[in-house]
Each structure stands twice: as C-alpha cells, then as structure tokens.
Amino acid sequence: MALFKKVGIVGVGLIGGSLALAIKKYKVAQEVIGIVRRKKTVKEALRQKIVDIASRDLRLLKDVDLVILATPVSTIKEIAPSVSKIVKKDCILTDVGSTKKEIVLKLEKLFHNYIGSHPLAGSQNAGLNFADADIFKSSLCIITPTRKTPPEVIRKITVFWNKIGAKVSLISPSLHDKILSYTSHLPHLVAFALMELIPSNYLNYSATGLRDTTRIALSSPELWRDIFISNRKEILTSLREFGNKLYTLEKLLSQRDVKSLYLFLKKAQRKRSKLL
Amino acid sequence: MALFKKVGIVGVGLIGGSLALAIKKYKVAQEVIGIVRRKKTVKEALRQKIVDIASRDLRLLKDVDLVILATPVSTIKEIAPSVSKIVKKDCILTDVGSTKKEIVLKLEKLFHNYIGSHPLAGSQNAGLNFADADIFKSSLCIITPTRKTPPEVIRKITVFWNKIGAKVSLISPSLHDKILSYTSHLPHLVAFALMELIPSNYLNYSATGLRDTTRIALSSPELWRDIFISNRKEILTSLREFGNKLYTLEKLLSQRDVKSLYLFLKKAQRKRSKLL
Q1: Consecutive sets of 10 residues in chain A, 276 residues long: mean pLDDT of each?
Q2: Which of A75, A141, A144, A270 could link A116 by a cystine bridge, Cβ 3.0 to 4.6 Å?
Q3: How far apart are CA A70 and CA A93, in angstroms?
Q4: Which residues of A touch B203 (CB under 8 A)?
C-alpha cells in the first residue's frame, strides 16, 4: 500500500519535480498534484508527465494527505498561510528549504502536523527540465523536529524520505542552520565572491580547479539571496571566522612562514581527504 | 622526423610522467630520459614504461636536446644550477612550474636557450601513477618569453606543446603570475582555508557543492606551499581584494540589503556562466 493517497507539491522545479518523479517511481503515493506559479509550467509538467495534475490553484490541495513546499525559501514563508487555510486538519506538511529556523518557527504555528526537511541533493541547475527521480538516492535528508512535532509525523516523513532513497538525520532547526552555514552557505558565498572578483579577461587562463571551485556560483541568484538572508546570523558568524583564516594565511605569506603555512595546508588536506 | 632527438625530464610525477608518455605517444622525441629523486621511482618509471631510461644521476642529461624541469617550484630553483653545468650549450630548457617570475629570473641567467612554461593541466592527484599521455589535449599552456628569449626557442617550444595537444599562449612572467594569482592560486588558498575552518563533525552534513568547491584542497601541501611562497606578492594582493569582497557581502547581509545582494550574486553567476 502506498504511504500516502494524494501528495501535493508546491513548486515544481528541480527539487519539486524530482520529488514528484520519485514519488511515482517508488509508489509512495497514488496521486501527485503539482501547484505551480506559471501557466507555462502547468503545461510543461503535464507534458513531461512529472505530475498527475498540475494547476496554479492552491485549492487543489484541499484533500491531499501530504503537502511538500518546494519553492525558494522566501516563497515558502509567503505561501504557507494560504496553504494552511486550504488543507485538511490531519494533512502532513513539510518543506525542502535550505534554511530551517525561520521557516520552522513560522510553519509550526500554522500547521499541527508540520516538520521541516532539507534534502542535501540537487545541483547548480534549476528548473523542471533537470528533474530526476533518483537525485535523492544515497543522499542525506535532514529533518528538523521540535518539541511540538507529533512523533507520528517524524515517523511518516522519515519513511517517506527513505522510500525515495535518502538516509534521514534528525537535527534541531538551529543546529541545522549552524552546520549548513559552514558546509553549504559559506562555500556558496565564497564561490560567488571569487567569481565576482576575478577579472573577466583573466578567465581564459584557468583550468579545472577554478571551474570546480566556482561551479556552485552557477546557482540561482534568487534562490541563494533568499537562503543568505534567511540564515544571515549564522552565515555572518562563519563568514567572520573564514575571514580570520584568510587573515592567518595573509600573515603567514607576509612573514614567509613556510613551516606554519605547510601545517595549515596539510591539516586542510587531511580533513578534505575524509570527505569522499 | 621527431622534433627532438633526446629529451630529459627532471621529476617524473603527474606532469613529468604525463609529458614523458605524451612525447612517446606523439613521437616528439626519439628517446626520453627521466631523472628522479627516489630509487623506487626509477624502478616504477621503467616498469610502467613511462621513460626509456630512468636514473637518479643528472649527468645523463649531458647530450639531450631538451630538458624539462617538472619538479615542485622550489626544487626547480634548487636543481637548475647543477643542470646548467651538465647540459650541452645549445640544449633548450623549460620548466612547468605554476609560478614564473621568480623562476624565469633565475633560470634565464643560467641557460641561454631557456623559456618558462606553465601547462594549465593536471589535477589534485600527484605522482607517477596518475600519469596520462592525454592530459594536455585541448588544454592551454602559457609560455613566458622575455626580451632575452631566442625566437627559435619560442618557436620550438610552441611546436612542442602543440604536438602533445596544447594550445599555447605567450604572456610575460609578471603578467602570468598576476593572472594566475586570481584564477588558480587564490582559489586554492580559499579551498584550503574553507577546509581548515569547517568543523570535522559537520562534514557529514554536506553535499556535492562542498565537495567540488574544496576538491583542490586535496592537492599536495608541499607543492602548494611552494607556489604560494613563490608568488606571495601577487597572491597577497588578490587575497586582500577577495577579503574586501567578503566584507562587502558581510555588510549587505548585516544591513539586509536584499537588492544589492541579488545584484552581486547575479553578476558573479553571469561571469561564471561564461566559463565553460
């Protein structure tokens, strides 16, 4: 038996579209309804058979068992109140935003059966055309229960992510935002800053190193502006600490401190080699 | 007819070994002699048929037509005087160091027929076992002639790199070091600094973004310590400019300046999209 009867996905882009495909492929629900903003996406989502029903009308969510908000972070916060007026009382709700504290604080006031999710999957690409049922395979999904989250919601959402291939880790919303500020938000900020800095006419003189390091600067500016603003407190902390590391390197170079420089690089390389 | 009769390669690691294989594959020389530091590498280079002759004795370079110094940057400077006492007067000499100003300054005093090279190829991997005849295919090699470089040396070294698949760009040693401080050295420094900063217990909560951004932090600390020290003046400049960009981002986040933040990210993304 399917875990859910009807699932509604709000926002059918890279993640929302991939979720829709995965839900169908792994038979997690009988029916998937996609709510999108643009007329064009309604057509495209149906043409590519990504969802069973596509519409711009939120009211189609009135009898679904699970709603997944898969829009950019700022839209999740904006759209949640309208969704809360439509869904059934026992409907389970989650979102896939890359920041959690702000979203969870707002959404758990609106929904009884809410839990935040953050699948660590996806890429720099955006949009429906990159949707793929298997992007969650072998990935990690962080879910962020609080004291208010009903145990049954934790259980069902865990099973949901497992069924489409993701391992699940439970972390509080604040710790999630702290950790991700280091492992994802800061690296994105750094990649954008590197690209902003490097003179365009120098770019021909680069190799795979620069390309890999700045691949994530291809990510959507809208999406990442939202993430940076939403998690700005934690990011400001990790950014300042990163500035201190750069200052250390600056001192080591100015002072020609070959030995300490080597130890700094060696420590970083050793840590990186643990990251497969 | 082969471009050279005998070629000597000092340092048979990733780049030196790949050069040896490419020279044989594309018949650029009749014979390749590899000079290495360790006994083990002599055996390994011969067993893997990477060179025709492998030895720890520099005197084997006495009758070669081209010497390529393919050791780390600091070793290039250390070993050059000994090489200059051995080679024929008309022997052409180049090196593949990632920094050029310091090396060119020293080496063109020692050799009449010297020109600096910097193939923008390779990877984070080091050593003979990663050698591959085709890493130069479709890559760019910067060569750095000065007023002292004989035109015939420029011509022959250009043909040499072309024959093994690389396009060649002529740039002065100082401009090379300035450009590469932005497109290669700073990104490496940043990747090492990111890894040094991120707490080890956070690393499990990361995705491909962090992995790509910090892949180059897997690079050899010895090699990169040398490069950073050799080009420290230019790197200190680009590092300070990068610090200013981060400071700009810090201000935009603190002030919640959503619009300017978006424009910053958009500019970076647009520039990155030109980098294929």
Answers
A1: 94 96 97 96 95 97 98 96 97 97 97 97 82 94 98 98 98 98 98 98 94 96 96 98 98 98 98 91
A2: A144
A3: 11
A4: 183, 271, 274-275
Measured at the alpha carbon of residue B95, what is the angle toward residues B91 and B100, in degrees to the nearest 5?
Answer: 125
Label the pairing between strands B92-95 and B29-35. Answer: unpaired
**Residue B122: which pLDDT band, with cuts at 50, 70 and 90?**
confident
Angstrom distance (rounded) from CA B82 to CA A257:
27
Average pLDDT over residues B47-71: 97
* The amino acid at A143: I
CB A189 within 8 A of CB B249: yes
Taking residues B170-196, report their average pLDDT. 98
Q: What is the ipTM of this complex?
A: 0.93
Tokens of B102: 């310091």
A10 touches chain B (CB under 8 A): no
Least confident of A117-126, A195-204, B43-52, B155-164: A117-126
Sign of CA dihedral A215, A220, A199, A236: negative
Q: Which of A141, A203, A213 to mutate to test the interface with B (most CBs of B within 10 A)?
A: A213
Q: In what order do the strands lie in the sheet with A4-10?
A: A53-55, A29-35, A4-10, A66-69, A92-95, A114-119, A140-144, A167-170
What letter represents residue A94's amino acid?
A: T
Residues of B in contact with A225 (CB under 8 A): 258, 261-262, 265
Q: Are B9 and B33 in contact (CB under 8 A)?
A: yes
Residue A53 class from Cβ within 10 Å (0-12 exposed, 13-18 middle, 19+ buried)? middle
Q: How far apart are CA B188 and CA B211, in angstroms?
A: 14
Residue B210 sits at the vertex; the CA angle it makes with A203 and B208, to the nearest 5 degrees, is 100
Which SS3 state, helix, strand or coil, does residue B9 take?
strand
**What backbone phi and psi angles, to 5 degrees, belong to A162?**
-60, -45
- The structural domains of chain A, ordered by start, are 4-171 (3.40.50.720), 175-273 (1.10.3660.10)
Separation of alpha carbons A266 and A261, rounded Å: 9
Q: What is the largest CA-CA distance in chain A?
A: 67
Distance CA B84, CA B107 (A): 9
Question: What number is the average pLDDT over the span B3-22?
Answer: 97
A107/A73 Cα distance (integer angstroms): 12
Element containing residue B151 per DSSP (H, E): helix B151-163
Dist CA A225 CA B266 (whole Å): 10
Mutation for testing the B interface, residue in A246, A247, A248 having most B CBs under 10 Å: A246
H-type alpha helices, B60-150: 73-86, 101-110
| Residue partners of B36: CB distance under 8 A and separation at least 6 | B11, B12, B42, B45, B54, B55, B56
